[in-house]
Write a structure and sequence with these properties.
CATH class of chain A: Mainly Alpha
Largest sheet of chain B: 7 strands, mixed
Largest sheet of chain A: 2 strands, antiparallel
Number of helices of chain A: 14
Number of domains of chain B: 2
Low-confidence stretches of chain B: 1-6, 15-29
Strand order of the largest sheet of chain A: 1-4
Radius of gyration of chain B: 23 Å
Shape of chain B: elongated
Strand content of chain A: under 5%
Structural class of chain B: alpha/beta
Helix content of chain A: over 70%
Strand order of the largest sheet of chain B: 2-1-3-4-5-13-12
CATH architecture of the largest domain in chain B: 3-Layer(aba) Sandwich
Order of helices and strands of chain B: HEHEHEHEEHEHEEHEHEHEHEEE
Distance between the termini of chain A: 27 Å
CATH architecture of chain A: Orthogonal Bundle
Number of strands of chain A: 4
Strand content of chain B: 15-25%
CATH superfamily of the largest domain in chain B: Response regulator
Number of helices of chain B: 10
Largest interface: A-B, 53 and 49 residues
Oligomer: heterodimer
Number of strands of chain B: 14
Chain lengths: 337, 336
């Protein structure tokens, strides 16, 4: 029998409770289609970054990706500037959008690969490497844009990606779920995914087992970069403009989401579905607090409390513990003579 | 089964009660609501603005009026707040944008949804109905210079500081100042447009240099908020307090000591309290279906006869007369 996933149960419960609480307190407005869409629209950009952080953490050896949002902004600005040169936004909206989104993905992939190569080949600690590249990416973005916002414009398909709906669900949210599903399958069922988690769990054992450790690490950070690039495309699509200092707080929120999702900070374990749920839960909390009109400092407090609570519950595997008690029908200690 | 349910329900109860405790009945209210969204909450400038919003709320008890803002200076956080407020169905938003470009998209969607949008400190915001500015930049620069010329007795060497040469408003202020000084033939501008980067220490060093180079320098006009502090310190240390005239943008609390000794002659600023009230007043007028017209009275001190111009988008630009020039005798009315 598969072991019960405590984080998963907890997150689902939390989401249900939050939705119910919000609906109750707002007299239904919180659960209105417009607000659900508005919240779903806000999740993808941070959610993609959080999955990137999760990948880096899973790789172990103190893995983390601090360069996420900097990379997203760089992708939006660089790709935007190039695409604006190649295609006139108004005359060729479809070509522009395709080039822009692919450009964002490419910039992210390249940036992520740079991270991966530095970490795996030069043996630099991930936190230092990505801190460095974070500043590098931000710097390049400032130089490229002269520190000003770059107007990408709102050509039809791109605007649709950021603000449009398919069957009532925002396109950006669908893209997020799609990316998450693909990654979830890759992590679970491909040799790469299995090897990544094993490398994260025990570097030495992985090395002696003949895993191509350097390649696994490089691919992992490249994927994280790719996700950041996609996040950059979504940010541009939503806001029409991109700028180097957008989302400076996302750095820590992305880590918060990953840890809340039960990703092991020392590597070897993490589930994409939990990261998705965790991102949704955080969005629900912050929107709820905005609905009530509470100070944003309360939100920081709520997030902090939540993080500690989740760490506590996961550390002692409380949910699993209770589940064991349930299935055996009596406290485990009672069976002792 | 029992225990597991217990944890879940305990958890649910904890959250419900926590949220319930702090939420008032404000949520399901039918009253028209105006929410002011500031760049960042918890700093003196926007705390002062909140006093204005509170005052306006007291004067309009039939409306739900409040101020919110992100806890960190990040345009993405402000964007989220605006997103949620629009989804919540707030009737009017009064926004002081962290970055006008970033929130263009959501403001457009807000207006498409029928939300009233008013902005402040964003004369380049395209998607707004009315942008309220405290004053016309040229008027502000000229007024500060008038005070300087008066203090200098219309004669002597003077110089100017700007935050950076790329700062559009600062260059407008000193430009208008130079124009005003040109009316007094004995005013001699030397080494103008020193860049301060809003760094009081840098300004302090530069002022000392300038005073060495021009021992007969008699006047300073500065632009960025911390400039007067650097100039004031250098002037005071040189024993020139009261002999050299210093007029520039500054805030009352930090400048108080130098104003008292005379190292700073006068500081110019606009009162965020009044600006907050003016934004809310415009929002209220628009909510009631009224129009904003040239010369109208917003019912707020400094905004009794506003100038209305077309804005960069479809909206309007409204200029008040909200500049304050405070000196030794008057700064105590504006402690923030």
């Amino acid at each position: 029998m598969r072991r019960l996933d405590g984080s998963f149960v907890l997150l689902v419960t939390l989401i249900v409770v939050l939705l119910a609480t919000g609906g109750l307190l707002s007299g239904g407005t919180y659960l209105s289609l417009f607000n659900l869409q508005s919240m779903a629209n806000q999740v993808p950009e941070i959610g993609l970054l959080a999955i990137g952080v999760m990948l880096a953490m899973s790789a172990g050896n103190g893995g983390i990706d601090l360069s996420g949002i900097a990379m997203a902004n760089l992708a939006g600005v660089a790709s935007g500037l190039v695409a604006l040169q190649v295609f006139p936004v108004d005359d060729a909206p479809v070509a522009f959008t395709i080039l822009f989104v692919l450009g964002c993905a490419l910039v992210g992939l390249i940036g992520g690969t740079v991270n991966g190569l530095i970490i795996s080949r030069l043996g630099i600690t991930p936190i230092l490497c990505t801190l460095g590249t974070q500043m590098l990416f931000t710097g390049i973005t400032v130089v490229l844009s002269s520190g000003r916002a770059v107007r990408i414009g709102a050509p039809g398909p791109l605007y649709e990606l950021g603000n449009g709906y398919f069957l009532g669900i925002p396109w950006s949210f669908l893209l997020f779920i799609f990316a998450a599903t693909v990654l979830g399958i890759v992590l679970r069922f491909t040799p790469y995914g299995v090897k990544l988690m094993m490398t994260g769990a025990n570097q030495k054992a992985a090395e002696f087992s003949g895993f191509a450790r350097a390649r696994i690490i490089t691919v992992t950070y490249a994927l994280s970069g790719l996700l950041a690039g996609l996040s950059g495309a979504i940010i541009a699509a939503r806001n029409v403009n991109v700028k180097w200092d957008y989302g400076t707080t996302y750095l820590l929120i992305a880590i918060l989401i990953a840890v809340m999702a039960g990703v092991k900070p020392d590597g070897g374990y993490g589930r994409v579905v939990n990261v998705v749920l965790s991102a949704i839960a955080l969005q629900l909390i912050s929107s709820l607090l905005n609905f009530i009109g509470l100070s944003n400092f309360v939100r920081d407090l709520a997030w902090g409390a939540m993080l500690l609570f989740f760490l506590f519950v996961n550390r002692f595997a409380l949910v699993e513990h209770f589940a064991d008690i349930l299935s055996s029908g009596r406290p485990p200690r009672a069976s002792k003579p | 089964m029992k225990q597991g349910l217990k944890t879940t329900s305990l958890f649910a109860a904890a959250i419900l009660s926590a949220v319930g405790m702090v939420s008032s009945a404000a949520l399901a209210d039918d009253a028209k609501s105006i929410t002011t969204v500031v760049k960042i909450s918890g700093i003196p400038w926007f705390d002062r603005m909140e006093t204005g919003v509170t005052k306006f709320a007291e004067a309009n008890p039939d409306m739900a009026i409040s101020q919110v803002g992100p806890s960190t200076a990040d345009s993405a956080q402000q964007l989220q707040i605006i997103n949620d407020l629009v989804a919540k169905g707030t009737d009017a938003l009064a926004v002081v944008p962290m970055d006008p470009a970033i929130i263009e998209g959501i403001l457009k969607r807000a207006m498409d949804r029928g939300t009233i949008v008013v902005t402040h400190e964003a004369d380049n915001q395209k998607n707004t109905m009315v942008d309220v500015e405290a004053f016309d930049n040229a008027y502000y620069g000229a007024s500060m210079n008038k005070r300087l010329v008066e203090c200098m007795g219309g004669t002597g060497k003077w110089t100017t500081f700007v935050g950076s040469l790329g700062s559009r408003t600062h260059m407008q202020w000193v430009g208008a100042g130079e124009e005003n000084a040109a009316q007094s033939p004995d005013m001699e501008l030397v080494d103008p447009n020193n860049e301060s980067f809003d760094d009081a220490n840098l300004v302090y060093e530069k002022t000392k240099e300038l005073l060495r180079k021009h021992p007969d320098l008699k006047g300073f006009q500065s632009s960025a908020g911390n400039d007067v502090l650097g100039i004031g310190r250098a002037v005071e240390e040189a024993g020139l307090a009261g002999k050299v005239c210093v007029v520039g943008t500054g805030l009352p609390n930090p400048s108080a000591a130098y104003l008292d000794t005379g190292a700073i002659t006068a500081i110019g600023f606009w009162d965020p309290q009044k600006a907050g009230m003016a934004m809310n007043s415009v929002a209220k007028t628009l909510l009631e279906g009224g129009e904003i017209v040239d010369g109208m009275d917003l019912g707020v001190e400094g905004y009794e006869k506003v100038t209305v111009k077309p804005g960069p988008g479809d909206g309007l630009l409204v200029f008040g007369n909200g500049m304050v020039l405070a000196d030794k005798d008057t700064y105590k009315d504006y402690l923030f």
